[in-house]
Backbone:
């Protein structure tokens, strides 16, 4: 009996793609380092307008969205994205400095699937990213 | 050559209803410039049509006496495109009084309005400087954080020094993190000891450690 060929394992699957949208360079670098260490492919946008354009141009598996950004804030960007059928279902996690439950509610109403408060622990970010993208990167 | 000013689009003509001299064809040189008065422009800020409000906001950029009315309007204006013009006009008219009014918007729950105010204040370094000390000492940590965001993008010679003061005394981790992020952009070597001292204040925050390492690397690499 011949040995069965190895299955196409998860190693063959392309890494889940995450778009980090945040105007803070250090924040973007931090998310990138944490998510890349967990096996995700990360791209960046520096404001809501750039994030919106990138999200529509080449849909991602997950959006990490800051709220307070120049040009277009995270709420406005999410509302715009949720109006577009092509990216309607892409999960989005907002990360804000504001821990007020009203802010979390606003984020969810704008189209976020999850709300995290800064500073985010690396383990929590990885866990939420895996949860939102349906498994390991 | 005609000296008659064209009315801004959307702004109704004002005057006594008689034909306006239109230059050489009238045979008489115009004696005065015509166009909407400040009062007419201020009234047009409340017009139903957004194009009229936008034109009025733009036309008021040469009228410093309209500044407070523009500040009043930006707080209630719902049209994003009119809001942008209102902020642009306020930037052109910039003064410490305007900056103080816009600083009040940092408490707004309307994120787009608040961010518009932050971006406008970043464009008026001299005007906002007198308000910054108070904003950095505000009891609300969100207001202090927005003040740091302004400071980080402000082309002001004292900005790096003020950011160092923030990380030396600020108790809130997110405000400190915003200041570290700003120092990564504008900090000088004198900021490095304060950054290292900050590390000891938040030893259990991985992001802070990462941010400080990044800032120090960027400052020392410049």
Residues:
């Amino acid at each position: 009996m011949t040995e069965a060929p190895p299955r196409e394992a998860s190693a063959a699957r392309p890494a889940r793609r995450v778009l980090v949208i945040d105007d803070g360079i250090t924040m973007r670098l931090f998310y990138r380092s944490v998510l890349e260490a967990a096996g995700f492919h990360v791209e960046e946008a520096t404001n809501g307008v750039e994030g919106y354009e990138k999200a529509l141009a080449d849909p991602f598996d997950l959006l990490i969205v800051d709220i307070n950004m120049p040009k277009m804030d995270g709420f406005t960007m999410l509302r715009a994205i949720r109006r577009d059928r092509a990216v309607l279902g892409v999960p989005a996690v907002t990360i804000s400095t504001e821990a007020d439950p009203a802010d979390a509610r606003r984020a969810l109403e704008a189209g976020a699937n999850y709300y995290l408060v800064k500073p985010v622990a690396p383990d929590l970010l990885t866990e939420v990213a895996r949860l939102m993208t349906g498994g390991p990167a | 050559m005609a000296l008659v000013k064209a009315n801004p689009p959307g702004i109704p003509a004002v005057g006594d209803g008689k034909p306006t001299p239109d230059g050489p064809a009238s045979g008489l040189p115009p004696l005065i410039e015509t166009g909407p008065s400040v009062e007419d422009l201020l009234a047009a800020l409340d017009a139903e049509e957004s194009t009229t409000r936008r034109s009025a906001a733009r036309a008021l950029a040469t009228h410093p006496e309209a500044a407070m009315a523009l500040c009043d309007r930006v707080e209630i204006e719902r049209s994003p495109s009119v809001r942008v013009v209102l902020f642009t006009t306020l930037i052109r008219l910039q003064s410490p009084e305007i900056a103080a009014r816009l600083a009040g918007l940092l408490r707004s729950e309307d994120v787009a309005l608040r961010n518009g105010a932050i971006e406008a204040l970043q464009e008026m370094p001299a005007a906002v400087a007198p308000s910054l000390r108070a904003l950095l000492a505000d009891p609300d940590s969100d207001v202090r954080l927005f003040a740091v965001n302004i400071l980080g993008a402000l082309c002001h010679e004292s900005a790096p020094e003020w950011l160092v003061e923030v990380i030396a005394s600020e108790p809130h981790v997110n405000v400190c993190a915003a200041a570290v992020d700003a120092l990564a952009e504008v900090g000088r070597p004198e900021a490095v000891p304060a950054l290292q001292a900050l590390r000891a204040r938040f030893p259990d925050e991985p992001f802070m450690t990462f941010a400080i390492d990044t800032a120090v690397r960027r400052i020392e690499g410049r």
Chain B touches chain A at residues 109, 111-112, 114-115, 118-119, 142, 145-146, 149, 173-174, 177-178, 180-181, 184-185, 205-208, 210-211, 214-215 (CB under 8 Å).
